[in-house]
Amino acid sequence: STQSTWGLYMDSEKIKAWVEDQFANNVMESFFEYLKIPNATPMLDPTWETNGFVDQAMNCLIKWIVNQKIVGLKIEIVREKGRPPVIIAVVDPFKSSKEEEESMLFYCHYDKQLGLPEIWKKGFGPYTPVIHKGRLIARGSADDGYATYSIFLAIKACQNFDRPHDRIVVLIEGEEESGSVNLSYYLDKLAPIIKTPKDIFILDVPCGDYERFWIVDSIRGLLVFELNVKVLTCSVHSGYAGGVVPDPFRIIRCLLDRIDYSRTGLVIPDLQVEVPQSNMRRIDIMTEVLCDSYFNKFEQIGPKAPYKNQEEKLKMAKEIILKNTWKTTMAVVGADGIPAFSEPVNVLRPESTIRVSMRLPPTLNAIEARDKIEAILLANPPYGAEISIKRNVAATGMVCPELNEDLLKTLSEASFKYYGKDMMYLATGGTIPIAQVFITKYPNTQLLMAGVLGPKNNAHGAQEALDLEYTKKLMCTLIQVVAEEYQCCLLYTSDAADDTPCVDLGG
Fold this sequence. Notes:
By secondary structure, this protein is α+β, with helices and mostly antiparallel strands. The chain has 13 helices and 20 strands. The two termini are 26 Å apart. The strands form six sheets. A six-stranded mixed beta sheet has the order 1-2-6-3-7-19, with helices on both faces. It has a four-stranded antiparallel beta sheet with strand order 13-15-9-16. It has a three-stranded antiparallel beta sheet with strand order 4-5-20. It has helices at residues 12-35, 53-67, 141-160, 183-189, 191-194, 238-241, 248-256, 277-295, 310-325, 366-378, 405-419, 433-441, 468-493; strands at residues 73-80, 83-91, 103-109, 130-132, 135-137, 167-173, 199-202, 214-219, 221-230, 236-237, 260-261, 266-267, 329-336, 347-348, 351-360, 386-395, 398-399, 424-428, 446-449, 465-467.
């Protein structure tokens, strides 16, 4: 038999109480200290190598990790000139009876998005963490500072309750918010330490709501580029040139309409895909659960879309979810060459540049999409203008590989125990480039992505918030996963699997 039955004997109430105590008396002081550090991601902070914030953040986390007194822990900072450093931690197998050593790899990051204090509401600030209505509000709380504490608490719990666990590797990166440019380099450099893990866990992802455990099922790709239109060699008076020289922004509008229909918000069919049936079935279930939340997900201005009955409401919700998770969408996320109101100018600009972000369906190849878009935008320049494109990011999305039955059983059981509801699959509209990096490096390894970025978490924006109760439940779930993944694999290799003794994790 390969069925893991020992998990039924886990004392979930003792685990909940233990996590509650650890969270209040062990985690929060260090977590608050970490959240006060303005260690913005390197792409957004040109002084990251000299201002000392990177080292402050790493040292804060390492100090707490070491203080957990985890048996078999080895931890170090790996530095390379010009590259943001990473923290690598290895925990030896604990009370393992396996003949062959197996490893689990956990990924998280210590860098943060920009604080942007000017956009936060009064009483809140990016680096002044506060708990408000059950949510910890600070930059880096949900994205993804909580993860380091959650991972090492799970390891500590197994040892505290005398449960065996596999060899565990934890990689804490310093530039996830900058696109993880050096992640592949570090994975290669650290290959002798990381080895080939049997499981990879990424905790920097969304959840659909705060009522159950969510597994990310698919992620969209991302294409970012800068579109420049030049019509003059220098600025000229708009009265003299108006009607003679075209405004560069009008040309930008014309070009964007070639790929994104401004009246409908729909991107051209050449950049769309057909949703696989298996994913569509999960979208149907997701729609049933998240229908109401998708209509109220954001604080939008204006009236809500009308619907006559529940059936029509579900249909509209499904269309919204599909647009958000399986359709190509476009947004202008930056502009240059457009003067601010405060600048005393009334001239026709020689050129304008916009930064375009396009989210791509999970199965659409980002490089092929980029080539199509460039061909469309650069063909037949309006008014003979000079058009150029600067490439930024091209990341292909993915449909996540299926997890094995034992891990799914563990997750389902844990979701019932700690959330009171079964786990669910989540298609997400965001992009997680690191997922493709890990799948490419370790094609035969199980990849589990789960996180805390639920409704109104507002990561990257003002009032970033971590739901504390949900986070504690996720910590409990991780404890069960770390312990039970060892047991499941042991059952596969044991000739006397049915005789494996069951031990109460609660002591």
